[in-house]
Amino acid sequence: MALRLVAAFLLLCLASAAPAQQAVSWKTGREAQAIERRIDALLRRMTLKEKVGQLHLSGRGEGFDIDQVRSGEMGAVMNFVVPTEVLAVQKAVRESRLKIPLIIGLDAVHGFSTYFPFPLGQATSWNPELIEQAAYWSGREAAAAGINWTFAPMVDITRDPRWGRTLEGAGEDAHLGAVVAAARTRGYQRGGVATTVKHFVGYGAVEAGRDYNTAWIPTSQLFDVHLPPFKASLEAGTMTVMAAFNALNGVPATAHHGMLTDLLRGRWGFRGFVTSDFGSITELRQHGIARDDAEAARKALLAGIDMDMMGDAYHKHLADEVRVGRVPMRALDEAVRRVLRVKFHLGLFGRPDVDPAAAPRLMQTEAAREVALQAAREGAILLRNADDILPIRDSVKSVAVIGAMAVPEDERVWTDPAGLGRRVITPLPDALRERLPQDVRIVFKPAFTKNCGTEFAEKEAAVRAAAETDLIIAMMGEDCTFIGEAASRTKLGLPGVQQELLEALVATGKPVVLVLATARPLVLTWASEHVAAILQSFHGGTEARTAIADILTGRYNPSGRVPMSFPRSVGQVPVYYSQLPTGRPERPQERYSSIYMDELNEPLYPFGYGLSYSRFSYADPRVSAASMPLDGAVEVSVDVTNAGPRDGQEVAQLYIRKPVASLSRPLRELKGFTKVMLKAGERKTVRFRLEAARLGAHDDSGRYVVEPGEVEIYLGGSSRAAVKAQVRLTKS
Ligand code: BGC
């Protein structure tokens, strides 16, 4: 380990000797004023065609026309990942009349060359510093390849695991979501790429979890639940916003003047630009609010969409719309101004082109891989560990590793930056081999033809081999078409034939440890009753299997926590911790209370939950004052003890409830958390600052209200936290 750290340090020095990536941030004061003057001057020189060109975003692949770059008709490109190709488009800009640099965008959603866990699997770490670092390296590697804009962070709050894009966000909670959104924004921009906070807004609430479907969100919920992560990303300095595919309360987000212009720019003062999603401007026709692409372009621009991603609607129609006077030149100029503003603040004017020779050496540095490893470790959640079956005991002399996922050809990735160094992924059996004593026999059987788990390859041989070992480690989950965009599901079990295999493995009578790499919380009710342990990851990236082996063998004490409730059955969805009370609270024996005939109300694994090889206890909650005014704050503290036999990290969480207010308020709301390292037997005092201003809620007109009255405070290691304190909010 020491050697590894020294190597990491040396590589870090090497990396810093290489061309530095410029951190990206909004300029202020005189610098910002000077930029506005330069934009004025540039706008005066631009033709109508060149102005429209700045709003046209086209992508690598069929139909990409590099001549549009030369003629000043394209302001942004996407999906160029190979530095020599990036250089080619940068050179084409130099042949254009005004030589306005290109914005070069990419979904570096969870990494560029080094892959970190998918965002949901980073949120599980509840460690904003670590999440920021993962974003930093993602941004830094992308920037080294010439990319200057990423379509991340995705901050959609989702309470419906049927939605396949669940794994791109931070889960169900507004506070956790906001903290993660800010951390990711800071990290990417520090690494040198402008961020795009997306998808504005309501995409995570698509009805029935079906991708691209409509979202109906009451104003109070929109402001209290869905908007806070966007606000947090803006406050952290995000330079661009992406509109969502869905309609929000009947208005397609791509033409939502109320959200894009009144709220985002008016109320929140956002100065960057807004891009559409992929082709979402022309989709306004399918949404039924535009007769043709020209009308779609007009409606989108006037609502507040500055850039047309892959739609060609602006490119083809906007100039005409301006010429005939349906779009005022002023509106076009404003959109162009916002795009140029980002280009100036990003520092693109005068920046040297990408250096393809330098790029490869900045990829997958030891330092980045160390962060990837730690993120994968902290991101995995131990959901179950019956009889402390994990870490693997000394008495275990043979282990069967089952499942094609344990030996991947590559980790699940969003965009594969071809040609920038092969990711070397350690197969799980190899990682275990390195960590278990030599006399422990390890057998591996893929059991399935592919990671998807849809087809068997020698099922019987796998079960037979497993039956002859002391411990079965089955790595399964969702892969292939089951994950990501357009991967909504109605059944939330293990896809394909994996459940069948799991049952056969359990039937051997040998203890089964289920290691999951999924896109969302699955329904694990059967597994929770039949397997000995469950270790959940959301596709952990380049170092996933090394991290899993570290946890299974006890080299790392798991510390991940659930960012999104695991339902007991699909029928419970949406199930989330911060529900409102009902007039007939759950009383299992009482027919006319808010219950199901055939299922409990509680999720299987609640928000905030996660096991450790240690045990943590909470005691002695204190509040610095019995009351506070509406503009005041108190300090809440609690003693946390590691009562277990190992050092470990605990995520101390603070929830509040306002039992009486003018609006019905959630039964619990997360207001703070902190990850603490505690040695075996150690006790630490954890402190939270609780500001009255953060204890209010929005009413149905979008007005934020903080009311006097009692506030209950709950402290503990999950949303079921039981240690209680209270404080009174007073008028003065
Ligand atoms: C997704 C966006 C993504 C874009 C570009 C769309 O389909 O919704 O999140 O950034 O494609 O790849």
Structure description:
The protein is 30% helix and 18% strand. With 732 residues, the chain is α/β, with parallel strands linked by helices. It folds into three domains: 297 residues, Glycoside hydrolase, family 3, N-terminal domain (TIM Barrel); 179 residues, Glycoside hydrolase family 3 C-terminal domain (Rossmann fold); 115 residues, Immunoglobulins (Immunoglobulin-like). It has a six-stranded mixed β-sheet with strand order 11-16-15-14-12-13, sandwiched between helices. It has a five-stranded parallel β-sheet with strand order 4-3-2-1-10. Strands 18-26-25-20-21 form a five-stranded mixed β-sheet. The N terminus is likely disordered. The site of beta-D-glucopyranose (BGC) has 6 residues, from loops.
Feature tags:
6-stranded mixed beta sheet; binds beta-D-glucopyranose; alpha/beta; Rossmann fold; 5-stranded parallel beta sheet; 732 residues; TIM Barrel; Immunoglobulin-like; globular
